[in-house]
Amino acid sequence: MIELKSEQQLNTDFANDHVILLFSADWCPDCRYLEPFMPELEEKYEKDFIFVYVNRDEFIDLCATYNVFGIPSFVALEDGKVVDDFVSKNRKTKEEVEEFLEGVKEKMKGTRAQ
């Protein structure tokens, strides 16, 4: 997973990609819950998305921009625009994250076909 270093990086390096932003923080126990299974999901979806870790404490303005008021949370971007999100303060299971990613894939297919 790529760690976001600046908002500029988001607007330049990933502006034309399919991106999954993971908003998280080191102190968040529900965020740590994701760590064992996220590498497997990243590998499974590596052809579909670029995964970007966003430290909530460092990018609080970005959290506000994407209405992320709880972590861990996911925001899916296509060409810089929000396609979908999975935002809440609740712990997320592997199955829930995978279901979200599958739904994003379907939505992005729909936008490409238009």
UniProtKB/TrEMBL annotation:
InterPro entries, per the entry: Thioredoxin-like_sf, Thioredoxin_domain, Thioredoxin_H-type-like
SUPFAM superfamilies: Thioredoxin-like (SSF52833)
Any one Pfam family match given in the protein's UniProt record, by short name: Thioredoxin
Domain of life assignment: Bacteria
Domain Thioredoxin per the UniProt entry, residue ranges: 1-106
Protein name in the entry: Thioredoxin family protein
